[in-house]
Amino acid sequence: MSMQLSNRGINIPASPIRKLVPFADEAKNRGIKVYHLNIGQPDIETPVEMWDRIKNYEEKVLAYGPSNGLLEFRKGLSNYYAKYDVHVSPSEIIITTGGSEALLFAMLATCDAGDEVLVPEPFYANYNGFAVYGDIKVVPVTARAEDGFRLPPKEHFLQKITPRTRAILISNPGNPTGVVYTKEELQVVADIAISHNLYIIADEVYREFVYDGEKYTSIMTISGVEQHAIIADSISKRFSACGARIGNLVSKNKVLMDSIMRFAQARLCPPTLEQVGAIGALDVPESYFEGILTEYQNRRNIIYEGIMSIPGAVCMRPKGAFYVIAKLPIDDGDAFAQWMLEEFSLDGATTMVAPAAGFYATPVLGKDEIRLAYVLKPADLTQAMRVLAAGVEKYRQVKGI
Amino acid sequence: MSMQLSNRGINIPASPIRKLVPFADEAKNRGIKVYHLNIGQPDIETPVEMWDRIKNYEEKVLAYGPSNGLLEFRKGLSNYYAKYDVHVSPSEIIITTGGSEALLFAMLATCDAGDEVLVPEPFYANYNGFAVYGDIKVVPVTARAEDGFRLPPKEHFLQKITPRTRAILISNPGNPTGVVYTKEELQVVADIAISHNLYIIADEVYREFVYDGEKYTSIMTISGVEQHAIIADSISKRFSACGARIGNLVSKNKVLMDSIMRFAQARLCPPTLEQVGAIGALDVPESYFEGILTEYQNRRNIIYEGIMSIPGAVCMRPKGAFYVIAKLPIDDGDAFAQWMLEEFSLDGATTMVAPAAGFYATPVLGKDEIRLAYVLKPADLTQAMRVLAAGVEKYRQVKGI
Q1: What pTM did the predictor assign?
Q2: Given this structure, which CATH class describes domain B48-281?
Q3: I want to staple A366 with a disulfide (CB 3.0 to 4.6 A). Which of A74, A340, A357, B150 is the partner?
Q4: C-beta of residue A322 within 8 angstroms of C-beta of residue A358
Q5: What is the least distance, in Å, from the CA of B380 to any CA of chain A?
Q6: Do B97 and A245 touch (CB under 8 A)?
């Protein structure tokens, strides 16, 4: 008898963002330069305020912190949220190991094995992973590229509600769609949650990245959702500190937060040193974000125009976050992304993309789509898009498409 | 209708190690000094080699690392294990966010909701927590204090095996028991696992902490367990770096490791900066551990003698790790531990302990026991034990025991 995995061990999906890394490594070993548009790893410098706190840390012992995070950091976050009209006390915040753990805790505390979470699709692929951790079912409500991935109509949500439905999970501003939900759209989500007694898990980690004068609205500014709303948050994107693994949960539902505190105790605490750094990052002046916003808007334009220059490609100009879903004239995003790494280069370089099928739960959807992250310098992005366009053309020739 | 939690959200236990922290904070606010024997947070300094690497880190972006951890760190760990006769390649190691995540991943990849894990009891309380994350059932096999918490007889394991049994989980050296399993005991575990096709999850984070000439043996040195054995490990205790949240898994079962890699991808990566620091810590000379071992053996003696000086107290001299389970002449360890923080002080100080009931899965067991961690300096430990002894005497008077 050979050893068996659990069903979840079998079913846990490979990350569409990371599963092709071995092929990228091989390409690099062959001397190819790889433009990483597959992952939201910004090249923006982590604020010096964060580095300074870390490097000046004077404790001799790198000790456990509180399970819910350092109080000073939670106080700082409480002030930070007030700027977005979200009024929460430090006790309504729990620090987590990345936004990842915030999402996991929110799902586990609200859903049992077999329970269901409604998610507008396409969605951040790792929602699938966390669902498998807890044997939870992701039920997609499909948003359409033609509609700019705006919130699907209320009836589409209502049609999917069953006695096992426990929560609605949204990303706003949206990864991978770039959509920024209006207050009216959030009101629709709130109405469904209130009338059907569902939690709302709102992944709002991209709130600083909103373009073209659009306005980010937190779910927690909608009245009546106090007992329903859970924000999953992270400093990864805000402070370009993805490797810090510092995120947090926010909720005014005390019973829920008491439960999540016990999940948090089981894993002891989030990383101590990066919390200390994050406290420093809270002092970053507004001007830091203004410069970044201009930079990302420029990058967004380069990537959008790069896609639109590919004959047959379709995409909507994203309004937030730093991703775009592009439909390409290809047969299979997985095969294409791998081929780009294994077979293609232009002037010694290739472009790594994330196949989009993994961002959908409905089979077949997203098969001819890719997700691109616009996290590189303009010159690199321009090159990456030139390589991508040439790759698409060559791939179509080779495959006879 | 009020919002409901999931059953696991209701059932997730508070950590017996951490749940009394609010009472400790209140005591401190009243000006009471609190000796923390509740938690395995050593006061040994984190090696300068680790701090130096962190403080000299020159990257400008605190970026994501690989989901399975930095290759240089995994190479270093591969060399480290060889010293203990465990021969694994870097690809047979996955870096995790603390030993906590290593345990969680091992359980999720091997067990579905409703599956069972056999665990000698008493056991590290957080095993209960991770089991609840995944809706997994912890099935205790009781070890007896009178037997020095040695491995329960083989038949006691066999009696508890059902069609849902998927794994045996052991801690060696043992938290909270201080037991160090012999090669013969590990052979018994291996025989059961092999004959019943079970995984063995071995929590071996305390391998450096073994006293009185006892010898630590890794489960992976037992022949025939290659496809069964999973080591859960951590640098938290070894390098007194609990707040780093750096652990790792080791297994030679490739299918299992491929699955765990996908769990790892979902949460992106473990903290980057502390991995860099941990690479530095791998250079710590052997003499670092020799000094620490002498120190801990001394601490162990102080705490053991302190317990034995309490009339009616029972405990075995622990042989490894840095915990001891002590039976006290009290009615209820939870009530006693809270009372020590709320009601008692001696010369302005009190001692915080972990009630032991949370380290058992069998109801009633451990109710008159506490767990103590001997992680403080000898002078502090001596004081803490003097306060504890006085507290027990006073508690018995007050409660009329």
Answers
A1: 0.95
A2: alpha beta
A3: A357
A4: no
A5: 17
A6: yes
